[in-house]
Specification:
single chain; 328 residues; alpha/beta; Rossmann fold; Arc Repressor Mutant, subunit A; 2 domains; 7-stranded mixed sheet; two-stranded antiparallel sheet
């Protein structure tokens, strides 16, 4: 099959009118970088296809010339990649498109979607009984339409068997890097990431949202700087009195202003930030839980367990078993 070592892996990317350009361009650049950095290691051959072939407009007006129609695709496929875009859920009503995707999936070693491309996989019956993700904006709708799918709105990408789904837009790059790591190893995936100047290490289990993204952006520059300080220094004294002193405010005034501008209390923000720090340590290190608790500012394993369960609804140990990277 096309995925055998030393042979080029065939990737078929499916687009439709109004697709998100970066959902295609991001993974395409990852795959082409593999061909550049490791030309003797198999690499990837990318075919961009659409239902009828020819010119297909992306969202924003850029037109992509697809190489073939879906009906023209025959033979084994290594990776079938369905991209997303604002109208993807509407395109799920196109029986011809969905039927062709199902046909190609039956002859594919691996199936993947970026963003709302998950709706097309779901309509084709390819996600039934599986864990899957999509852009957080569309997750509720995906779960409502397809109740047999275990939809998870937070992860950047999810692998369930031979099926991969990812969050929106730039998460397609993370998905493609994970596919490269699976095919060629983490060393080459890191080299590709460096070459594309993208975040080097975002495991699939990482939340689509960092702590600052979960809160409103403060109007006040000192409070924005304080948020950055909190996130970068989880082991510091981050009590309300200490934070108030850093901003030159009274404790009462600081608490009121912080809560008003971010939507959460200072204590709640600090706890979320430390929970984020713990999650990153569990993903990327093999440190024992007592060290993770100390290094993220939570002090004791009991506190780590309690806070982690409150924010992620899973124990630290179970989280590590599910999401720790192979290189940790």
């Amino acid at each position: 099959m096309a995925s055998m070592k030393g042979m080029q892996r065939r990737v078929v990317a499916v687009v439709f009118d109004g697709f998100q350009l970066l959902d295609l361009a991001g993974p395409a650049d990852v795959f082409s970088a593999v061909n550049l950095f490791a030309p003797h290691d198999g690499g990837y051959g990318l075919e961009v296809v659409s239902l009828r072939g020819g010119a297909v407009p992306a969202h924003g007006g850029i037109v992509v010339n697809t190489q073939k129609s879906l009906r023209d695709i025959e033979g084994p496929i290594d990776t079938l990649l369905v991209v997303g875009g604002l109208p993807a859920a509407d395109h799920a009503a196109d029986r011809d498109l969905v039927g062709q995707i199902a046909r190609l999936a039956a002859n594919s070693r691996r199936i993947a979607s970026v963003c709302s491309g998950a709706f097309l996989l779901a309509e084709a019956g390819l996600l039934r009984g599986k864990r899957a993700t999509t852009h957080w904006v569309a997750a509720t709708d995906l779960a409502r339409r397809y109740p047999t799918i275990q939809v998870e709105a937070n992860p950047i990408y999810i692998k369930d068997g031979n099926t991969w789904t990812s969050a929106g837009v730039t998460a397609g790059i993370d998905l493609a890097l994970a596919l490269v790591a699976e095919d060629h190893g983490h060393r080459l995936a890191r080299r590709v990431a460096r070459g594309l100047v993208v975040y080097l290490h975002r495991p699939g289990g990482q939340d689509q949202f960092s702590t600052p993204m979960r809160t409103a952006v403060p109007r006040s520059e000192p409070l924005r700087e304080l948020q950055a300080f909190i996130d970068a220094n989880p082991t510091n004294d981050l009590s309300v009195p200490a934070l108030a002193r850093r901003t030159g405010m009274s404790e009462r005034h600081f608490s009121r202003v912080f809560t008003d501008q971010t939507g959460v209390s200072p204590g709640r923000y600090v706890e979320r930030s430390r929970a984020d720090a713990a999650r990153r340590l569990l993903e990327t290190t093999a440190h024992p839980l007592d060290r993770v608790a100390r290094d993220c500012g939570l002090g004791a394993p009991e506190t780590l367990y309690r806070v982690f369960r409150r924010h992620w609804r899973i124990s630290p140990g179970d989280y590590r078993r599910r999401f720790q990277t192979k290189e940790s």
